[in-house]
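User: New here, any thoughts?
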Amino acid sequence: MVLQCYCIFISLFLIVLCMSSTIIYFVLNIIILQQ
C-alpha cells in the first residue's frame, strides 16, 4: 500500500517536472526571439 502511494507520488512528480520544463523551454524561446 505504501509502495503504491510512493509510485503514484513519483509519477505525479515526473509529470509536473516534464510540464514545467516544457513551459520553461517555451518561455526561454520566446525571450530569445524577442531580443
Q: What stands out?
A: Helices lie at 2-34. Residues 1-35 form one domain. The radius of gyration is 15 Å.
